[in-house]
Amino acid sequence: MPAASPEHPPHPDQRRPRQYRQRRGLERMELILDAATRVVAEVGYERTTTNAIATRAGISPGSLYQYFSSKEDIASALWERYAERLSAIVDDEALTRPDLPPEEVVNRIIDPVHALKTANRDFAQLYARTSADELESVARAHTEFHRRLVEVLAARNPKVSRTELADVAAIVSAMFSTTVTSETLTGDPTKDLAEMKRAILAYMGARGLR
């Protein structure tokens, strides 16, 4: 077979080993992340170790470190799966419509986030890592979520200052975070959700916001 050149480009078979390695690398990374999801959900983030993740993935710790440098590195990559979904929730253009009832706004934001918590036990563990000293990627996601919430409130309440709306968004986010990061507040997660919605709507109503 002639050497690669402008006149003789590499044969597809010559490129396959590199593509194969790339695909295998991506598959191995997904295997590690899936294993991390299960370990974090079972024992909590604090007790999770890279050794436990490697064992669950069926690989050696050395193989794991070829793809991730630490537990925090794995958690950041794991969080990216959820960060995209969180962004999609608050990027819903319908949220800014003045005619959309406040109850529906709250439902459209809180219900899907609560569903993420319910379906993915590791989500709440990562969601709680809001300090940049723990997981910077989570802190950034919370900051972006807050920014977008202010934008939604501003579109629906154009006469209210951004400073006031930023304060409201911070309080609302903190109220809801308690529900997300706690196993349950009342003993019934469904009741937790209903009570949190009621509290948020009452707070917004007291501030005269839609």
Would you spell out the secondary-structure blueprint of this structure?
Blueprint: H1 12-43, H2 50-57, H3 61-64, H4 71-90, H5 102-119, H6 121-127, H7 136-156, H8 162-181, H9 189-206
Helix pairs in contact: 1-2, 1-4, 1-6, 4-5, 4-7, 5-6, 5-8, 5-9, 7-8, 8-9
Distance between the termini: 71 Å
What is the helix content?
Answer: over 70%
Radius of gyration: 22 Å
Roughly what fraction of the amino acids lie in strands?
A: under 5%
Query: How many E-type strands?
Result: 0
User: Could you give a short account of the major beta sheet?
Assistant: none
Number of helices: 9
Please provide the ordered H/E string of secondary-structure elements.
HHHHHHHHH
Shape: elongated
Mean pLDDT: 86
Structural class computed from helices and strand pairing? mainly alpha
- The low-confidence runs, each spanning 5 or more residues with pLDDT under 50, are 11-15
Give a summary of the structure in a few sentences:
With 210 residues, this protein is mainly alpha-helical.
Question: How would you portray this structure in words?
Answer:
The chain has 210 residues and is mainly alpha-helical. The protein has 9 helices and no strands.
Could you name the key traits of this structure?
210 residues; 0% strand; mainly alpha
